[in-house]
Amino acid sequence: MRILLLDAGVVAGTGHNQAILEELDAQTRGRAGVELVCAVAHGIDAGAFGHLACRLLPAFQLHGYARLVCGDQPRAAVAKLLDAACASDLAALQPERFDLVLMPTAHPLHLLALARLAGRLPATTRIACGLLMPPAFWALDDEAAAMLEAAMHEAASTLACRANTFIYSETGRYRIGAATVASAILLPPVATSTLQRMALLAVQPRTGSAAARFGFFGAPEPRKGFDLLAALMQAGLPDGVSLSLRLPASAQAFVAEWSKPALRVDGVAAATDNARFFDDMASVDVVLAFYAPQMHRTQMSGMVAEAICLGKPLLLAEGCDALIDFLARHAPGSYLCRPWTVEGLRSGLAAPASEWRAAARAAMASAPAMRELKSAERYLAITSGGAW
Question: What backbone torsions phi and psi does residue 49 show, to the nearest 5 degrees?
Fold first, then answer.
């Protein structure tokens, strides 16, 4: 089986795109008759991925996290220019030579290029695409948002009519402008070897201070609640609480500002891989997913499922319906919710220890089933239509 992974958003040392690539590489490595090729954006340092067995191809002119602005340019002119670039990049990869074409994090314009090309692919070529962020995520003005919503609508409609095609999301619904599209549910994959390590980490006793340790993981952005967290750190954490910040390498300034014993904050900004990321998450008592409700009313966060895989409860903001609904279905009782304010965050950190112990028991009880949902074997079996 030849697998083409299309991911223009891969960045060395950080992010869920790199995580998916690492886990699929681990799962396919050494598998007889299987070849994994990953197409990434131009400018990516392939040497940073030298530890992987798969082949990386710098292919895309448009990075998977490029934010677009139309400004004074007509929307149609911008769309025509970008559409042509994405189409030529994709065609050059010759996807017709592959058995399975995967796009786990679909940028609207890359997905549109694939949808327009799909009719010329052999019927035996399986296509599987994950719809994660809404189109407006990539837009910096209203014109760009409208352009991307139109692209995503055309792409999703076209692919829905093609046989041997699988469209999924983490929540079962995906918002395009004012419309909500139903989809299958599938979570980002984790290799069997990683899942086995996660199972061991889940039952490993935490060492260190007796203070309840909360963990913030990821970029220190307002949409991830870091501005609220910064305000709380400035005012002082509740008694009996400590905080671990695990940030990308680009966030050294945040660590310098906030990682201080007097504040009971331990911060690290560094490139990481999945093994270290999960080790760090296993070292805390509670994972903070106190995110902006306007973003996560309909959008899932992959870190939520990973926390449950490790038996860790979560603190969520009220209004993050995608996260709350997911946990209510798959890990009931494993989380606490508080209002999306600094005081709401403080009240969550200061919740009685008995409430957090109950949430931790619920998270641990749900961990084995969550690890099965995250299984890369399951992911490949489903996305390949049973050919894996």
Answer: -115, 25
Pair 227, 334 in one domain: yes
Q: Are 138 and 107 in contact (CB under 8 A)?
A: yes
Determine if residue 240 is left, alpha or beta; phi over 0 gives left, psi from -120 to 50 gives alpha, anything else beta. Answer: left
Q: Nearest 5°: phi and psi at 248?
A: -65, 165
Alpha-carbon distance 321 to 340, whole Å? 13
| Whether 267 contacts 247, CB under 8 Å | yes
CA distance 313 to 363: 6
**pLDDT by 10s per residue, the chain, length 388:** 999 999 999 977 678 899 999 999 999 999 999 999 999 999 888 778 888 999 999 999 999 998 999 988 888 888 888 999 999 999 999 999 999 999 999 899 999 999 999 999 999 999 999 999 899 999 999 999 999 999 999 999 999 999 999 999 998 888 888 888 889 999 999 999 999 999 999 998 877 667 799 999 999 999 999 999 999 999 999 999 999 999 999 999 999 999 999 899 999 999 888 889 999 999 999 999 999 999 898 889 999 999 999 999 999 999 999 999 999 999 999 999 999 999 999 999 999 999 999 999 999 999 999 999 999 999 999 999 999 9
Indicate the residue among 143, 163, 186 that finishes a domain.
186
On whether both 151 and 201 belong to a single domain, the answer is: no
CA distance 268 to 266: 7
Number of structural domains found in the chain: 2
Residue 164 CB contacts under 8 Å (≥ 6 apart), including other chains: 123, 124, 125, 126, 127, 385
130 and 13 share one domain: yes
Cβ atoms of 23 and 119 within 8 Å: the answer is no
Asked if residue 256 and residue 128 are part of one domain, the reply reads: no
Phi-psi region of 11 (alpha: psi -120 to 50; beta: other; left: phi over 0): beta
Helices (H) and strands (E) in the chain, counts: 14, 15
103, 168: one domain: yes
Return the C-alpha torsion angle 290, 296, 299, 301, nearest 10.
0
Range of the domain at 356: 192-373
